[in-house]
Amino acid sequence: MVQRARVTATVLHMTSQRHTHDALLDATRECVLEVGVRRTTLTDVAKRANVSRMTLYRRYPDVDHLVRALMTREFAVLLEQVEQATTRGNAREQLVSRSTEAIKALSSNPLMQRVLQLDAELMLPYLTDRLGSTQRLVEQFLIGQVEAGHLDGSIRFGDAKTQARVVLLTTQSMVLSTKPATSGLDFTSLLDELAKQLDGALRP
User: Has domain 68-204 been given CATH number 3.40.190.10?
Assistant: First the structure.
């Protein structure tokens, strides 16, 4: 009985922790959508989440850590949706289709568009200096797709990590440059051309 009570208490604690974590990220999302990243403060997030500032400070030392956690959650949900979407064809065709669908989703994602609209310079380090946690998350997803293509013979054999990295860099440029990319051009036509290029590059 004592052991069962301890297990129950642990589960309840973990559930409470998750609830608080999601509440903090939800509040951060609302703040960023309203005023952008630079004008979002820990105090504002704590008020929106209805928690004390100390509760927030213990979990996240600054807004940067909060936003990174939020973006990682946002991308994880998007990738899950893309992966679960009904896709026909071999692994290469699925990778190409899922890549373009992910671009569409990100290009219409309110949070991503708000960041690009108000705080685009915050993305610069992840283009010139290092890969961020969300980029790593997407890359792991792509590696799995490429390896599946190696197994079914639909993707030319090569180093899966290298091939996935090239796909990542190619597709992220479309997401981050949607506005100039669509200047005088149809977005759907651009994605169709991207799909053809990806398919040709990966085909055996």
Answer: no
